[in-house]
Fold this protein.
Amino acid sequence: MADLAAELFKGVRTQDEFNSIIGTLMKQGIETVLKAELDDHLGHEKNAPAQNGNYRNGYSEKTVKGSIGDIALSVPRDRLSTFEPQFVPKHQRMIDKVEDVIIGLYARGMNTRDIEDQIKEIYGIEVSETTVSNVTARVLDYMKQWQSRPLENIYYVVWMDAIVIKVRENGKVNNKAVYIIIGLNKEGKKEVLGLWIGNAESASFWLSVLTDIKARGVEDILIACTDNLKGFTEAIRSAFPHTDTQLCIVHQVRNSMKYVVWSDKKEFVGDLKNVYHSPTLEAAETAFEVFKQKWSKKYPHAVQSWERNWNELTVYFKYPVELRSMIYTTNAIESLNSTIRKYTKTKVVFPDDSAALKAIYLSINIIERKWTMQARNWGVILNQFLIIFDKRCRL
């Protein structure tokens, strides 16, 4: 092999000469694979008797872009036109590596013009904005498959939230909500269950989202962590009657602070921490009584908000400390949303819903690659789930 390589590249002095040899080898290799695919499709090799009336029928010419430039291929055809190449599919005009780079750059927020320039700089090949758009458009097919994939039958925890984006629609720029769910599965790992886009966030739309994940195989959710959107808890109970719903403490604190003047904010938050950092529910109730007596007259709306949501805000006190830190806020999904915004920040207004979903899906693809670790203290937490929920964990 070393002798063959030495012979092939003997006398090569420039990058162009090197690329020419590599291009020839790639052309020969790809065409050999395509011929083997056709043999397999027809069920016989060249010059063997035809089966089912189908046989080879010459070649069609096709040029694909690779990392070393354009490669002209002769793609074998069959008489009945039933052959679908897999190595270089029909209509594909790029080798996978270049397509992957284009998709990766798009996912990281580059626009089509910037990607065009970057590909030219990296590989020295020309790709048009239309080509870039066509490549990234194929992502929609991957996303549809991902969005409809079967889910696990149980998730121990889900975090649910929506992010607001701007989409151009009928000549106007509208705010839309992209609904996202993260699930903690039986292995203690996070996964995004799906993306859904609608108008302003609403409990009724969340119910349709929950109905969708039920149709994809989810039978039970042990604990759901959400913001305090009106009707959210009822929507969850409608779809999953046995799920405990914990409202996000951080969201609740933020909402309370809207009613508080700047000079009181530090003291107000400090008193609230005495409530939600209490070791037990009884201690939290005592701290809350003190908080009410101190602040009710000055900030009645803030205090009443805690009173209205008290039962859903204090669900986490039912659980051991290791579980509490996991469920008392929606930090898991807020962190995801923050990273999505980082990747999509160059796209101030999306041209349509599909473009928005495509960009967010690609961002999630990048983010999920880093979710390789189990939840911290998973062994301890798993045992707590098994003790508390017993048979429900064994679906």
Notes: Confidence is low (pLDDT under 50) at residues 1-5. The longest helix spans residues 15-42. The chain has two domains: 1-88, 154-394. The radius of gyration is 28 Å.
